[in-house]
Amino acid sequence: MGSEQPFIEVHQKTKSYKHMWARDVARTTMDYDLQGAIDLAKGSDVDVAIPDHVGIGQLREATKEITGDGYIPRKEGQIDVGIVGAGVAGLFAALLFDWLNDHLDLKDKKLKINYDILEGAGAERLGGRLYTHHFSDEEHDYYDVGAMRFPNNSIMKRTFQLFQYIGLTQESKPGLIPYYLTDVLNKCPSYFNDVSRTGNVWASELHPDDPYQLTGTYRFFPATLCFAPWLTFGSGTGWYDQSLTECVLEELDFHTDDSHNVQYWWCVDGGAQEIAKRMAAKAKKRIEYNTCVRSIDA
Predict the structure, then answer these.
(1) Where is the Amine oxidase domain (predicted)?
(2) Cα–Cα distance for residue pair 293/87, rounded to 1 Å
(3) How far lies 255's CA from each of 21, 22, 150, 161, 178, in Å?
C-alpha cells in the first residue's frame, strides 16, 4: 500500500551516541577479556613468556602450547560460520556475509564465508522479535507483537537504508506507510472490549457502549520512572529493568521533533514480520527451520 505523503529523507543533526557507546563497550569488553586471558596464562603451570603490551595476535602465538592452534580454516580464506537463529541479527549477518563474498576488493584475497542459518522454531516464527500475529487471513487483521513502528531519525538511518536494500518502500506491496502517534484528524480506528470505534475512544459520550466501563473509570497511565540508588528503571507495566544509560539511549533512538510537517514515524503494511521475510528472501542461503543447536565443535 502506497502513501500520498512523500518519503522525505530527514535526519536530525544528532551524533550517533548509541553507536559511540556500543563501540566503547566493545573495546572495553575486549580489553577486559584480553587481560583475563593474560592473567590465566601467567598463572598456568606452563612457563609462558608474555610480552609487555601484548595484543590478541601476540598472545595467541605465546600461548599456542597451552591452547593449541584453535580454529584454522581448511583452506586459506575459507571460513565456515554457523548462524544460530533467524532473527534480525542472524538474517543481517547472512546479508553481510553475502556482501563480503561478492565484494570486488576481496575477490583477489580468496575470501569465502560459508554459512548456515539454523532456526530452532518453524517458519511461522521467522524474524525473532519481529513477530506479527494474524488473527485471520483478512487484510489488516493482525497485531505486531514485537517491533511495530520506526522513526526516521539520525540513529535509525541505517534501518531505513536496510528497508531500501530489501525493497521495502512506499511503492512496494507490502510497503512502508505512515504511523500516526497522534490522532490529529480524530479518525484513527480502535477495537477493544468487542467494540469498534474511530476517533477518540476515551470520549465520554462513548461510555454507555463500553460494557466493561473502561473509558469511564480507567485510563492507560504512562510508565512510572523509579530511580533507585543503583539507577535502575522499574515499570508497573512489567517492562524489563533498564539502567539509566539504556533509558537515555532509548530516548535517542526514538527521539523526533514535534513537527507536523515531516512524517517521522513509519510502519509496515502487513506487519513488521514482512521485514524478516524480505531479508530471508534476499539472503543467498536458505534457512534450516526446526533445527536446534545442541553443541558447538570448533
Answers:
(1) 123-170
(2) 15
(3) 17, 18, 11, 18, 16
